[in-house]
Amino acid sequence: MTTATVVGAGIAGLTAAVGLHRAGWSVRVLEQESEVRASGTAVLLRRATVGGLESLGLGAGVRTLAIPLTGLQVRTRTARPVTPSRPLSGAVLIERSDLVGLLRESLPEAALLLDHPVRAGSLPRACAEASLVVGADGIHSTLRDELFGSAYRAAATGTTVWRGTAAAATSGLTEYWGRRRRFGTSTRPGGGTNWYATAVLRPPRGGSARSDLEELRSLFGDWNASVDATIDSIRDGSVLRHGITHLARRLPRYHQGNVALIGDAAHAMTPDLGRGANEAVLDALCLVRNLQMDGRVDRALAAYDRSRRPATQRAATASAVLHALIHRVPWTPMPDTDRGR
Ligand SMILES: Cc1cc2nc3c(=O)[nH]c(=O)nc-3n(C[C@H](O)[C@H](O)[C@H](O)COP(=O)(O)OP(=O)(O)OC[C@H]3O[C@@H](n4cnc5c(N)ncnc54)[C@H](O)[C@@H]3O)c2cc1C
Fold first, then answer.
1. 61 by DSSP, 3-state: which?
2. Ligand 1 surroundings by CB, under 6 angstroms
């Protein structure tokens, strides 16, 4: 039986592990945390992603837990429609914890090794011990660093994101765009709202005593009734807040030797197009498909790279451009490849 070590139990790593397990591989997933992280709000899954999850036997679970989403409406801060609703045919919203739960349940329990960080320098040993190593270790990937060096680290865009859930009800998916700021709401599968907000903070908050809710009110409080109602129904202390980072420099390839990078490890993008988790699932499925079609790992990884790198790098660029347009932050196209390697 062929063996695979998957590094990281996020959406990318778990999808790859389930796919490999179903394809008859012996899989172990090394996760640095003591629990699989399922925090965060709902994830928008596109039609192709839902189809991919169906091919793993997760269709019924997704249909039970997710809610359909028909379109995205962009409005001004005062709620005037900017564009007609953009159709999102076949898309669904699912709580991140539900998606992670479905994937995890499809893996034998013994395959998941928690509290197992893969440290810098240990990749050669991991490569020797398994036929395949899958780097699914996210935006600050150790494996990416090992393969391509520190020039390919994620960089901050200068914007901040807040997100969470709120009790107030909203319908569909709506984004309100203001000057260098955005507030998004979507129906929550279990009722209420998933919300997110992005803004450029000047000067950075650093050390200020303001709570997240006070900060949100000061940035978005005078926008419109729907945003007001959403902020008013956010529970204090429930807000996730962090700086946005992405992989501004494109990787020259997504594989080396018997190591493949997938998901954010390969192409961490800004959240503007809501594509990161979708591309992570599609990467994982494409990798497994190629390994099923070609018994030679090196050829299968090269085929995976050819299939996935152009599309995901285009998506990352489009997302970064949109991010720069909304927030008016600088965007410099980064070199495609490091020809010295
Ligand atoms: C605000 C925001 C909103 C988003 N909304 C959407 C959306 O609506 N739709 C969408 O498609 N995408 C969305 N995304 C993007 C999406 O969340 C990510 O692209 C996706 O989760 C990436 O999955 P991943 O498995 O590659 O990485 P991660 O989810 O980061 O998983 C990596 C895993 O690897 C583990 N790990 C890291 N280093 C090591 C190590 N050295 N050893 C062992 N384990 C390690 C980590 O603990 C983690 O469990 C959003 C992102 C943000 C920031």
1. helix
2. 7-13, 30-33, 37, 43-44, 117-118, 136-139, 142, 161, 163, 196, 263-265, 271, 274-278, 280
SS3 state at 339 = coil
The pTM score is 0.95
Residues 128 and 272 in one domain: yes
Same domain, 297 and 180: no
- Return the closest-CA partner of residue 194 out of 144, 238, 155, 150: 238
Which residues make Cβ contacts (< 8 Å) with residue 215, sequence separation at least 6?
Answer: 162, 205
Domain count, the chain: 2
Q: How many whole angstroms from 84 Cα to the centroid of ligand 1?
A: 31
Residues 16 and 142 occupy one common structural domain = yes
Split the chain (341 residues) into runs of 10 and give each run's mean pLDDT.
95 98 98 89 93 97 93 95 87 94 97 97 95 98 97 95 94 93 92 95 65 95 96 94 95 98 98 96 98 96 98 96 92 57 37
> Residue 250 has what pLDDT?
96
Q: Is residue 297 part of a domain?
A: yes
pLDDT at 269: 97
Q: What's the gap in Å between 311 CA and the centre of ligand 1?
A: 19
Read off the CATH number of the domain in which 222 is found.
3.30.9.30
